[in-house]
## 1
Amino acid sequence: MSLLEELESVDKKGLFKSNDHTVSYPTGITVLDYANGYWSEAMDPKTGEIRNVANIGVPAGSIISVIGYSGCGKAVPNSTLIPTPKGYRKVGSLKEGEYLFDRHGRATKIIGVYPQGEKDIYRIEFSDGRTAKCNDDHIWSVWEYDEEKKKEVLRSYPLKKIISEFNNREFMIPLNKCVDYQSVPISIHPWVLGVFIAKGVFTGKYLELSIKDIKDLPDLICDKMNWDPVKLSKGTSYRFVSRDTNKLVEVSEFLKDCPDLINVPDYQRFIPDNYLYNSALNRKAILGGMLDASGSIDNNGKISYSTTSKSLKMGIIELAYSLGYICQERHDVRDKYIRENKLILLFPS
């Protein structure tokens, strides 16, 4: 189905009506919709009042070819990996009719693919450490201060304009919203798995939790898993007995759906894909478990998490980005063999 056919099918549902004016179809392309929109008078069905109504979108009957859209732009390298509902894909492999995520985290259908040929590529680094590669024709949605309106406004510019005015104006890229991955079946409560990824012991036969300061953590785990805690003689470690079998919980049983974590030491920990690419609720839960077990927070609201595992570091960063959070990386060298990765998480207001 073409874009025009899709928009016409929307109008058949009665969502966009106009009596004496042309029907406008919102395309989701901010600049395009507002440039082609108009104001008209309409009666409020609830109050009977006549009000000005913004008809935002492309007039019916118009045929417009779009190469890029606000916030996503165009002309990015074919090798760029981007998240889609079916996992990460290279831009060059995407086809019309497939789906990717927009800035608001929603799955959005690709309505056209337009190869750009060979282009000069720029590498952009953002204040939180993220990077992106694109051509100078790539369109970015940016926040900037409007002197007349005395407030921040969202506008769209090609990279070439941003570069030319970078020293005289301040541009801020909007953060993406929480990505809407679909929920997939999991066997372990995500908060519990997060706690054990942070403080669990997977290298023995029986599942252990090693903690010092959070005394109620074992009880919270048991409430969710139907277990009972068994404190070991060393004082800061616990094992667990299943109330269903009355036996100690074994690592192999606990991680039966995440077998690659069995016998993995701290410095090789990671977040399994079926938890990393799950619903927002489950992703927040596993991140919350790790932070509850091993995170800290300062007086300014900055949350810190440290790990010696590079894979876990990358997983937490991806988890945070997919939830619409900011995650910055810091390094502390413990010795010449082990590098600690300290992550700072910020939650947008």
## 2
Amino acid sequence: MLQRMVISQFPEIYRIMEDSFSDDEYRPYEEQLALFEEPEYGIYYMPIGSESLESQVPDSALKDKPAGFLAVWEFAEFIFIEHFAVDPKLRNSGTGSGMLQELVKLSKKPVCLEVELPDAELARRRIGFYERNGFVFNDYPYMQPPISKGKSPVPLFYGAACEDVNTIGGFANWVQDWEYTICPHCGKPMKYLAQIQWNTLMDGTEGTLYIEFCPDCQLVSMQHQQT
């Protein structure tokens, strides 16, 4: 069962983060720790002592240590997973799928995440993992700005989508040409979040409402297109 991390567990969480991500994908220790001052940020973890892992870790002294974690930003309308990893020693145990599915079930709101471009076998396997757990990756690539001073940008895909006309995450089905909004504060392209058909909100109306957001500035943009 997922549990909320307490600060005393952060060193072990950070160890898993270091073992699971490239240097450009996470912040230095003190910067990562400082995120807990933000009310929207938090980390959930799965303890090694969970029922599904007990047979793999016989040492009772390790039962409360994290087997994996989900570092998330919880906004009013959606949850964004910034980091998600399982301890390398406990991978292929079903822990990752269990954690992800539990978070989606508990959240009762859209869950969004980022994935690497599928240009390497490991990246394709990771995308396949998310697809098996109900996510569909966004076919529109973007460049994640440096996560910290001295780090490099990271090319990623964003979001998850379904087959419905109204969608959350994934990629936009533009009525006309694609048009991603530039954030008026930081000048970066906003990230696509959702599209809503106007006729599902008001009878007799036409067109599609596209919703984008800037995670850095926490701004939301909406635009309309129709034939």
## 3
Amino acid sequence: MNSTQNGMTALAVASAHEHAECVVELIRAGADVNFQTDTSKISFKDLLTDLANAGTILLTLGPSSMALMSAVKQGHVHCVRELIRAGANVDATNQVGTTAVMISCIAQSIDCLRELIKARASVNYVSCTGVSALKMAAISGQ
């Protein structure tokens, strides 16, 4: 259920592409909503693409480390709700210390940010590069 292809689980892929019905079915089937992406299978080209898509704060985003971050990064609020309802860790960090709250600020996913805050996600974490969600929001124009 939690095997990966290209470093992403089926749940992370469904979340990234806003397939909320698939997200629900995968959760019902036992998918681990907190499963960490195997970054050793992510190619350097994919990493650079993700970083380039992050815009001005290139070194703080990196590849999404789980389904929740994938959904937040794409602004898929319905998937975010389902993942939170299923127990996704709203304060989990990826390999560079970035949280879903930070990703929502970078991606300007305001509805996702609201859902994370309702779920009591911390807005006070600082990434490994020393950047907070507030600074990320300011840099990305929010």
